[in-house]
Amino acid sequence: MARGIVLGLAMLGFSLQPLKVSDQIDLATQQRMQQREQQLSWEMTWLQQEVVHTMEEPQNRLFRTDMPFTTWEMGLFGAFAGALMLLFGLFCMSMQQDFDDGSSDESTSSSEEEEEDLANEWGEERLLEQINQWPVQCLAKRSKVVQALVEDLLHACHLLTSKTLLPRLEPCIGVGSAFEGWSSDHDTTVYNLLVPLKPPTGHSFHLELGTGGELLDRHGRVRVQLECVCQREQLLGYALCFLHHPEVKLGRHEGPDFLQYLCTHSYLDVEKTSCWLQLVVMNAWLLLPPSHRCKLRLLPASRSCKLRLTSASGRPLFIDILLGVQQGDSRIYLTSQEAEAGLTSSTMWLESCAVLEVLFFRVMARQAPRGSCHLECLQLFAHLVRGTSFSSYCLKTVVMHLLTTIPLSSWHRAHMVERLNDILHYLHRCLERKQLHHFLLGNKRVPAELLLPPAFQTASPPNLFQHMAQEQDAHAQALRDFGKLQDHLQSLLERP
Q1: How would DSSP label each residue in 224-291?
Q2: How far apart are CA 444 and CA 441, in angstroms?
Q3: How many CB atoms lie within 10 A of CB 480?
Q4: Could you count the other beta carbons within 10 Å of the beta carbon of residue 439?
Q5: Given this model, what pLDDT does residue 231 score?
Q6: Contact yes or no for 271/63 (Cβ under 8 A)
Q7: Long-range contacts (CB closer than 8 Å, 24 or more residues apart) made by 465-468
Q8: pLDDT of residue 162
Q9: Alpha-carbon span 168 to 170, nearest angstrom
Q10: Contact call for residues 224 and 199 (beta carbons, < 8 A)
Q11: Are 276 and 161 in contact (CB under 8 A)?
Q12: pLDDT score at 457
């Protein structure tokens, strides 16, 4: 019966999968379908054996005690895994194509037309060659593929942790340059995804932000408290109030106590929680249908879950899963991201506006005319500043300021050389003043769609070049690096 459900859902899942090029299934696809169907039965047996073996390992006792699958639950999970099996196979084929090809055939034809028009307009073949090393369309496609993979992985994590009283993993949010649409080098791009945490039943999170330091340079702690659910217990009949009934261990839930397992002195511990996430993710990967094309490896990390995904051709893809706790209804999070100077306490979380920055670039993409070059400009400069005293974040800040001061209609590819010079001139003015303001704080030009918290709107913007104002040697080095940057860009513009 369960196997019939698995086969039925698997074939249904395949039938709902949209074909990438046309509605016709070619011979190679038919053969892959037949192979997957033949493997389905023994892979399901392998899957169940792997689950049992994983739960019996001493280091994974958490999963053996916290998730006692019943026969029915195992059947449901098997149905989910079976339905995912063919979908995941096609997903890996798609990702393999992304790994092996610089971009898809579909995007190649359109990008070639744009490149030809651009070359005719500029006559700058060398500059075009530099920009096209990291096609924006390919990066956007890979970002979607990576996010889809992590979403499937988190769904399996949810199945594993559904019977525990540990934090709930919310849907992931892509953050960082890759999800903003640019990258300095697509071969070493790290795809950062933020996974918001929600407290389990009977618990609540209370954020305690540090009073020292400026906004976006603050640390905070997440205090975990037991909350009273007596009224819910009376209404629903099965909720247990751990606050007023400490003698009840965990009732219908099983597993370790949240406060003891992931907290230090009632504060959510970044390192403990990240270690727990790593363990859950690797066990969830075992439950996903095995793929001969992709291998997953856990990389060392104390404050996040760093993954290396390797295709059959050997090309790696790096994923960094960060944890975060949302500040009220805002898009500001306390995240597990490492601070530049390092954090001395494992209970300290770093305040981040990475979600707001991704949203900004989405707003610009919707408002900018077709053929806008702002991402290509940012991508090129991010590549040019590698190895200098300028960070890619500083260049991103410059571009964000210019996007809200120069009309978006002037960012067409026909004006790309002018916009590149504008970026260079704006950076030079900031160097002369030793002042580059953060874009999101105290800036009246921030799009209203971002819905900034009042504290951000009235705050004094931090100076990203403050270290240059305080250290003469840092300023002198920045001026030398700017001269090299200016010469490099000029040589690109002048080459035939």
Answers
A1: EEE---HHHHHHHS----TTT-TTS--TT--S--HHHHSEETTEE-HHHHHHHHHHHHHHHHHHSPP-
A2: 9
A3: 12
A4: 23
A5: 57
A6: no
A7: 465/394, 465/430, 465/431, 465/434, 465/435, 465/436, 468/431, 468/434
A8: 83
A9: 6
A10: yes
A11: no
A12: 87
Structure tokens at 384: 């040019």
The pLDDT score that the predictor gives to residue 443 is 94
Indicate the angle between helix axes 392-403 and 374-384, nearest 10 degrees.
150
Q: How far apart are CA 378 and CA 183, in angstroms?
A: 8
Output the pLDDT for position 34.
54
Cα within 13 Å of Cα(389), Cβ side = 18
The pLDDT value given to residue 215 = 59
Give dist(CA 128, CA 114) in Å, integer: 11
pLDDT, position 343: 64
pLDDT at 75: 45
For the full predicted model, state whether its pTM sits above 0.90.
no
CB neighbours of residue 161 within 10 Å? 23
Angle between helices 392-403 and 354-367 (to 10 degrees): 40
**Cβ atoms of residues 452 and 459 within 8 Å:** no
Burial label, 268 (beta-carbon count in 10 A; 0-12, 13-18, 19+): buried
Cα 192 from Cα 390, distance rounded (Å): 21
* Helix, coil or strand: residue 390: coil
Q: What are phi and psi of 147, to 5 degrees?
A: -65, -40
For the record, the structure tokens of 7 come out as 């086969």
Question: 3-class DSSP state for residue 344?
Answer: coil
Could you list the mean pLDDT of each consecutive 10-residue stretch along the chain, which spans 496 residues?
40 37 46 50 43 44 40 44 49 49 42 43 44 65 89 90 88 95 78 95 87 66 82 53 52 63 94 95 81 78 93 85 94 88 80 95 94 91 91 95 96 92 97 96 93 88 92 96 92 74
Which residue type is seen at 56? E
What is the pLDDT, as a whole number, of residue 436?
Answer: 97
- Residue 366's alpha-carbon distances to 39, 118, 143, 188, 434, in angstroms, are 44, 22, 18, 28, 33
